[in-house]
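ok, trying the design again with the full structure, not the truncated one.
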């Protein structure tokens, strides 16, 4: 009986550590004042209320300076815990509402910022975007370092220098444990891939798998407060505290078998002497149907 009481009390204690950490996480500086002001001035940009929805769509943005360098849509089925992650090349040619055609990563750099990026991505995919999470590269480095790094297979030829971006990438090939700084470089590298952004997206998806594996591992609990503190300093989001608490409690239940990765279909092309990623509309619609099936929703 003492053994079961000890297990119960330990579980109870862990539960409140997570909830308390999540509360601190939210009450820190995660709220994006610019996003709140934009919605107040442009109510038509307000995201749909997801409370009655089974599937929640969240836009993840990895930000380099002002433009979004990484764009991923996470769709999460609250009932069966299934997740799909759809990567969108940053050079995808889209129509940005009220601005005309441009590369998709330019949307977040407009005066409406993230709210406009949500509308643009939602229009492209034909789905409502309920939430957003903006992560800075420096913040991603810090979180990965706290987790103890991530193990990935580095392909040959990851050598690149760009003084304009203050970016220098020189990684040895082979399976290795990358610290936060090198992991972000691994995610940002694209010049050496024959298919440029598509090659980089494949690398990013491998990095995400390694990150999830570390985040859901048994060794993460002692680091939870450090992770939460780092997140509070590098993340902006419109997620409510209750939503964050709910998702945090489901982290332990995430299984890689329930996560499916996708990439926007299309190819690199030129229009008006500008290089874009041109998506295939027919294949995109087929893919969105497949995503619904993977998530276990009929409509």
């Amino acid at each position: 009986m003492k053994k079961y009481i000890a297990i119960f009390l330990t579980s109870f204690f862990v539960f409140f550590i997570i909830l308390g950490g999540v509360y601190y996480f939210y009450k820190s500086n995660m709220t994006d004042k610019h996003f709140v002001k934009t919605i107040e001035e442009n109510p038509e940009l307000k995201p749909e209320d997801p409370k009655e929805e089974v599937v929640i769509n969240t836009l993840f943005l990895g930000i380099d300076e002002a433009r979004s360098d990484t764009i991923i849509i996470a769709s999460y089925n609250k009932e069966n815990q299934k997740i799909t992650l759809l990567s969108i090349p940053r050079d995808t040619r889209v129509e940005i509402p009220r601005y005309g055609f441009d590369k998709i990563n330019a949307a977040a750099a407009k005066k409406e910022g993230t709210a406009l990026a949500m509308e643009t991505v939602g229009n492209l995919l034909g789905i409502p975007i309920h939430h957003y999470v903006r992560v800075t590269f420096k913040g991603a480095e810090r979180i990965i370092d706290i987790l103890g790094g991530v193990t990935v297979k580095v392909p040959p030829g990851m050598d690149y220098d760009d003084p304009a971006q203050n970016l220098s990438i020189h990684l040895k090939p082979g399976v290795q444990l990358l610290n936060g700084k090198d992991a972000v470089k691994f995610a940002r590298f694209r010049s050496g891939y024959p298919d440029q952004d598509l090659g980089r997206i494949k690398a990013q998806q491998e990095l995400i798998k390694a990150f999830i594996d570390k985040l859901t591992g048994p060794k993460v609990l002692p680091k939870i407060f450090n992770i939460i503190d780092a997140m509070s300093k590098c993340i902006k989001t419109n997620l409510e505290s209750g939503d964050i608490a709910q998702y945090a409690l489901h982290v332990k239940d995430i299984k890689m078998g329930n996560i499916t990765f996708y990439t926007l279909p299309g190819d690199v092309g030129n229009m008006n002497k500008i290089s874009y990623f041109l998506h295939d509309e027919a294949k995109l619609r087929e893919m969105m149907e497949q995503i619904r099936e993977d998530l276990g929703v009929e409509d």
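Keeping the full-length input from now on. Confidence is low (pLDDT under 50) at residues 7-13.
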